[in-house]
Amino acid sequence: MSNPSTPRTPLRTLHPEDVRKTPGGLSLDIVLTPALRPAPRSICKSSTSSPITSADISEKLSNAATRREELLQLRKENIDQKLAMVQNKKDEIVNKKATRTKEELDAKLKDSEDNKNLILKKTKDDVKAHLAMVEQKMKDLELLTEAEKIARKIALDEDTTKAEEKRSEQLEKRIKDIQEHVDYVKSVSATQEMKKKLYLAGLEKSMEEAGKRKEEAVAKVVEVAKEEEVKVEEAKLRREKEEKAIQDKMKAALIEKSGKVEENQANKDEMFKSKMEERNRRAELVRQNKLRLEQEGVDGTNLGPESA
User: Which ranges in the chain belong to alpha helices (H)?
Assistant: First the structure.
C-alpha cells in the first residue's frame, strides 16, 4: 500500500471532442478521466515495515470515497453540459429546417398564385377577344343582310321599269289595233299583275327567312359565348381545387417530415442515454474492482507482518 502522505493525482476536467454531424445524426466522443492514483504496489514487504493501523485504513477508505464522489460529480456535470449542448444543436437544426421548409412553401404558394392570376388574365383576354369577334361578325351579318335587301330592291325596280317600258312599246306599236287586241292586253295585264304579286310574295318570304336566319345566328353566337363563359368558370373551379389539393398535400408532407425528424431524434436520444448508462455501469464495475483490489491489498498488508 502507498503512504497516506503521498499526494493524489489531481482530477482532470473532461474535454469531449467536437460534435460531428453524421448521416444518422450527431456524434460525439467523451474521454473518461484516467486513473486518479498509481497502480497498487506489491503487497510483499520486508518484515521491518511498520503495521498499518485501523485509523490508517479508515483514512484511506474515507479518502477513496471522497475521490469517488468527486469523480462522479465531475462526470455528472460534464454529461449534463454535453446533453445541454446536444439539445441546443438539435433545436437549432430543427428550427433551421422548419424555417427553410416554410420559406420554400411560401415561395411555391406565391408562384402558384402568380400562375393563377396569369391564367385568369389570359382567359379574360381570350373571352374579350372572342366577344369582340362575335360582335364584329354580327355587324358584318347585319351589313350583308342590308346589302341583300338593297340589291333585291334595285333588281325589283329594274324588272318593273323594264316591264313598263316593254308594255309601252307594245302599246305604241299596237295603238292602232287597240280595239282588236283589248282582250289580249287585259290578259297580259292580268298575267303581269299576278307575276308581280307572286314575286313580291316570294321576296317577302325570302326576307322573313333571312331575318330568321339572322336571329338564329345571333342566338347561336350568344349560346357559344355562354358556353365559353361556363367553361371558363369550370376551369377556374378546377384550378382552385387543384391548388387546394397541392396545398393539402404539401402540408401533409411537412407534418410527416416533422414527425419523422422528432421520431429519429427521440431514437437517437434513447441510444445516447443507453450508451451513457452502459458507460456508467462499466465505470461502476471499475470502481468496485479498484475498491476490491484496495481491500485485498489492505488484507494482505495486515497478514504480512503476522506471517513474518
Answer: 54-173, 182-307
